[in-house]
Amino acid sequence: MTEAYLWIKALHIVAIISWMAGMLYLPRLFVYHAQAPKGSEQAQTFATMERRLMRFIMAPALIVTWISGFSLAYQSGYFHAGWLHGKLALVVALTALHGYFGWIRKDFTADANRHDPRFYRIINEVPTILMVGIVILVVIKPF
């Protein structure tokens, strides 16, 4: 293992933590935003918080996670490993969920929310489930 590999791995872990923090916090903001009166100052504050979270934390962290992850997989020769294929499938699902959250955020910005707070409480659990699967595949490497 080279020193560069270890630095990339550290960067990857930091990016994952940042991305997951946003993926867990954003739906919680959606819960509160859904409870705020449309067009209110409170709703505008939530819209600003959601936009900044996605733009300045989640999106850069997602990009760094993908780039550093591919770099690590390439350097380690893991592209043939079944566990990596499973992990990548879950990461693709997490990335799609990130995109869906972006769509929801735009709906809130346009005062066009389509869901009640309960929906956002439920969807808040999806990133956690995906994360658990990813961690198990990376650590246990079951196949």
- The averaged pLDDT comes out at 97
- Compressed to H and E, one letter per element, the order equals HHHHH
The rounded distance between the terminal residues' Cα atoms is: 23 Å
Proportion in helices = over 70%
Determine Rg (CA atoms, Å). 17 Å
> Unreliable segments (pLDDT under 50, ≥5 consecutive)?
none
Question: What is the number of domains?
Answer: 1
Q: In this structure, how is the largest beta sheet organized?
A: none
Count of DSSP helices?
5
- How would you name the oligomeric state of the polypeptide chains in this document? single chain
Protein structure class: mainly alpha
Shape: elongated
Percent of residues in β-strands:
under 5%
Counting DSSP E segments of at least 2 residues, the number of strands comes to 0
